[in-house]
From TrEMBL:
Domain of life: Bacteria
Catalytic reaction annotation: gamma-L-glutamyl-hercynylcysteine S-oxide + H2O = S-(hercyn-2-yl)-L-cysteine S-oxide + L-glutamate
Pfam families per UniProt: GATase_4
Source organism per UniProt: Streptomyces meridianus
Pathway per the UniProt entry: Amino-acid biosynthesis; ergothioneine biosynthesis
Glutamine amidotransferase type-2 domain location: 2-251
Cited InterPro entries: EgtC, EgtC-like, EgtC_Actinobacteria, Gamma-glu_amide_hydrolase, GATase_2_dom, Ntn_hydrolases_N
Protein's recorded name: Gamma-glutamyl-hercynylcysteine sulfoxide hydrolase
EC number: 3.5.1.118
Length: 251
């Protein structure tokens, strides 16, 4: 389900990362090459990006397919940024959430996306939701599983966890409550990127001149792309990438 991507590096136009590469996220909305679940990503899309001097990112999200929004092409042509997170959402059963269910989710300096699904949703999430303060539950943007996953991550960030620790602890909690869930999570604060490979594909490309890209799948055939092993935490900045194996919690 879904495809997502984060970038941190020298300032570049959105289109250089999201629309112009031969297998960019734009094309992945209808022709992903490595997507294991779902076939077309047409139930919404979004991009969040950071402007110089402002730690709070801007977002552009829509409920329809990215190819049906000519305004996005104009936006991608002129907006430049040194950090972004974008996603296209897999076609799912109809619901009322619309744009609110499209990643990236955001709060303060953070942008977040979830590629995957919680098994047994929504019943499997009852215990997870009960552990959150009531006011945080009431702030959920949507009623989908990804919105709850974001609420769990955000709660940990607000408690002082680092990007990577917030993802690891959330994945551990989710796996215990809903075994078999696919939990590829992507998180950035505009400086660093953290991600988990847990049940679906994740790749990265890093270089001292070109910045770092973390994505569900490569957007071109450059040999610099490397696949992240399943059950792994990735932490990256503009030049370096660190991979840490994750142990599956004991039952």
């Amino acid at each position: 389900m879904c495809r997502h991507l984060a970038y941190a590096g020298p300032a570049t136009a959105l289109r250089d990362v999201l629309t112009e590469p031969p297998h960019a996220l734009y094309r992945q909305s209808w022709a992903p090459r490595m997507q294991r679940y779902g076939t077309v990503n047409a139930d919404g899309f979004g991009v969040g990006w950071y402007a110089p001097g402002d730690p709070v990112p801007a977002r552009y999200r829509r409920r329809g397919p990215i190819w049906a929004d000519p305004s996005f092409a104009d936006l991608a042509r002129v907006v430049r940024t040194g950090a972004l997170l974008a996603a296209v959402r897999d076609a799912t059963e109809s619901g009322a959430d619309g744009e609110a269910a499209a990643a990236p989710f955001a709060s303060g300096p953070w942008l977040f996306s979830h590629n995957g699904a919680l098994t047994g949703w929504p019943g499997s999430a009852a215990g997870l939701a009960s552990g959150l303060p009531a006011h945080e539950l009431l702030q959920l943007e949507a009623r989908c599983d990804s919105a709850l996953v974001w609420a769990l991550v955000l709660h940990r960030l607000r408690e002082g966890d680092s990007l990577g620790q917030a993802l690891v602890d959330t994945v551990t909690e989710l796996h215990a409550a809903a075994p078999g869930s696919r939990l590829n999570l992507l998180l950035t604060d505009g400086v660093s990127v953290a991600a988990t490979a847990w049940g679906d594909t994740l790749w990265y490309s890093a270089g001292p001149a070109g910045g770092t890209v973390v994505a569900s799948e490569p957007y071109d055939d450059d040999p610099c792309w490397a696949e992240v092993p399943d059950r792994t935490l990735l932490f990256a900045d503009r030049t370096d990438v660190l991979l840490t194996p994750l142990k599956e919690p004991a039952p």
